[in-house]
Design brief:
With about 525 residues, this protein is an alpha+beta fold. It contains 18 helices and 23 strands. The structure holds adenosine-5'-triphosphate. Adenosine-5'-triphosphate (ATP) binds near residues 260, 331, 334, 375 and 377.
Length: about 525
């Protein structure tokens, strides 16, 4: 399936099966805001649990908090968000569409990369096993020409962003003859900075009200609680504080479903370390985080690291973990070495000491921080996009059929077990309910008696339920059921007593965690 079609299909599927709805849909929706439906919320909760357990439960030296969304406005001056949390925006005068100027340039650069990839594929086809990719990249004139183009544009962009030179960003767009992807027009406005924070008022009396912000990241709630947690938890360096919560950004471009939303959720962990040890921990967390992603079992080639050329004002090293979404490789998680920037700034702006007393050396200092920051919604999207499959299946009579199956990692699947009485009579529904009553304490179960058994299987495949069990007349005689595996579609007759063990073995979160720890 073409990637564009896959993405459209995914959005339709997410709606049809209760994963994601457009916010305020009956009022024609609200741009870049989405609601999670009955299946979506379960998957989301399971992802959160996998992350939380991997951080907090598996580490003696990481604890969690849940800070408020509203914070003292001075925090955003200290963190640099009021002055620097901007994106450069540009409008096309003909199409009236608005873009992030740096994104337009990045996408242009990717076109040169696509040409290089095409040449590599051609070379591989021509030379077969004798193809030496390294040599090809170093010597092929087309590749070298495209590579030097990439380096040149990238170099200019990084420099312009670092210097906040908006005229130069516009000039790059003009020089590269970048056209509006929608209309093809090159009639651009100047580039302007746009602050992404949402503002609101605190207090009921207009005069006395003060301007506050909806937090654009959860991290600051951790920094301002550093001392509270360190003291009350008697934490010793190195230690981490984890948090899952909503963040809000007035994104300029919001056209990629839940990839870029104006209200979204982050899962962040700030790891406080002794200055000078941060690079060691940075490497450690890079590895831990990629292992967490890989433990879910999505295709490994869909992940890659991307090193930041332009570092944020607070960082001395930064990598993204990118995922290959249907619209290409994009950021899924950021891992940043944030130095002592945040704590030092809060110390300065609040006038309160935010230091750590090291009993071994007898010294006090402001700790350094390594941050891991992952978007919950983007993780959700990565799972849906890698797991939604259109499968061709051969029937016993030789004919072929298709099924849509959502092969979500079983531990994360919203419903673990569907319990299906073969017919709606003869005491089979009662038996099915009795099984659910026994298993519902451990697994999310769904009862379904409507339509033929084949259609019910298909419905569960589309939701992503790892197991279906069928209750038939034999069940009443010998307490056995048929269990059907979502991925293999294989069926087996087992004793009801064995059911909990079989399902647990497949869906227990421990399975995923054991791959990492
Ligand atoms: P991008 O460059 O894509 O705008 P970012 O670098 O600004 O992302 P961070 O500030 O590092 O993102 O935020 C950490 C994580 O939060 C990101 O890796 C991403 O998964 C998630 N995230 C950021 N912005 C959004 C958004 N608008 N919608 C959904 N998730 C987001």
């Amino acid at each position: 399936m073409a990637q564009d079609d896959l993405f459209k299909k995914l959005i339709a599927h997410a709606k049809e099966y209760g994963y994601i709805f457009q916010s305020s849909e009956i009022y024609d929706g609200l741009s870049a805001v989405y609601d999670y439906g009955q299946m979506g919320v379960e998957l989301k909760n399971n992802i959160k649990k996998f992350w939380w357990d991997a951080m907090v439960k598996m580490h003696e030296n990481i604890v969690g908090i849940d800070a408020a969304i509203f914070m003292h406005p001075e925090i955003w001056n200290a963190s640099g968000h009021t002055s620097a949390f901007n994106d450069p925006l540009i409008d096309n005068k003909d199409s009236k569409k608005r873009y992030r100027a740096d994104d337009l340039i990045e996408e242009h650069i990717q076109k040169y990369q696509a040409k290089i990839n095409k040449d590599i594929a051609k070379g591989r086809k021509k030379f077969g096993d004798d193809f030496d990719e390294k040599q090809f990249l170093e010597t092929n004139p087309n590749v070298l020409r495209n590579k030097s183009k990439i380096d040149e544009i990238q170099g200019r962009l990084v420099k312009a962003l670092e210097a906040d030179d908006l005229n130069e960003i516009k000039q790059i767009i003009v020089d590269c003859e970048i056209a509006d992807p929608v209309s093809g027009s090159k009639n651009w406005t100047d580039v302007r900075q746009f602050n992404l924070m949402f503002e609101t008022q605190l207090g009921s009396v207009a005069d006395g009200a003060s301007k506050i912000y909806l937090r654009p990241e959860t991290a600051q709630g951790i920094f301002v609680n550093y001392l509270n947690v360190q003291k009350t938890g008697r934490m010793k360096l190195p230690f981490g504080i984890a948090q899952i919560g909503k963040a809000f950004r007035n994104e300029i471009v919001a056209r990629q479903f839940i990839f870029r939303m104006r209200e979204f959720e982050q899962m962040e962990m700030q790891f406080f370390v002794k200055p000078g040890t941060e690079m060691e921990w940075f490497e450690h967390w890079k590895e831990m985080r990629i292992n967490w992603h890989k433990a879910m079992g999505l295709p490994e080639e869909k992940y890659r690291f991307h090193k930041h050329d332009k570092l944020a004002h607070y960082a001395n090293a930064a990598y993204d973990i990118e995922f290959e979404f249907p619209f290409g490789f994009k950021e899924l998680e950021g891992i940043h070495s944030r130095t002592d920037f945040d704590l030092a700034q809060h110390q300065k702006f609040s006038g309160k000491k935010l230091q750590y007393f090291d009993p071994e050396s007898g010294e006090s200092f402001v700790p350094y921080v390594v941050e891991t920051s992952i978007g919950l919604d983007r993780t959700f999207l990565s799972i849906l996009s890698a797991c939604l499959k259109d499968e061709e299946i051969k029937k016993e009579n030789g004919e072929s059929d298709t099924r849509v199956v959502l092969q979500i990692p079983p531990a994360l699947a919203p419903i673990k077990l569907a319990v299906l009485p073969l017919v709606k009579k003869d005491g089979l529904p009662k038996k099915a309910r009795a099984i659910i009553d026994e298993l519902k304490f451990d697994f999310t179960c769904q009862y379904d008696e409507k339509d033929s058994i084949g259609r019910r299987y298909r419905r569960q495949d589309a939701i992503g339920t790892p197991y279906c069990i069928t209750i038939d007349h034999q069940t009443l005689e010998d307490n056995t059921v048929t269990i059907r595996n979502r991925d293999t579609m294989g069926q087996e007759r087992i004793k009801i007593d064995e059911l909990a063990g079989i399902v647990d073995d497949k869906v227990n979160m421990k399975k995923l965690l054991k791959k990492i720890f």
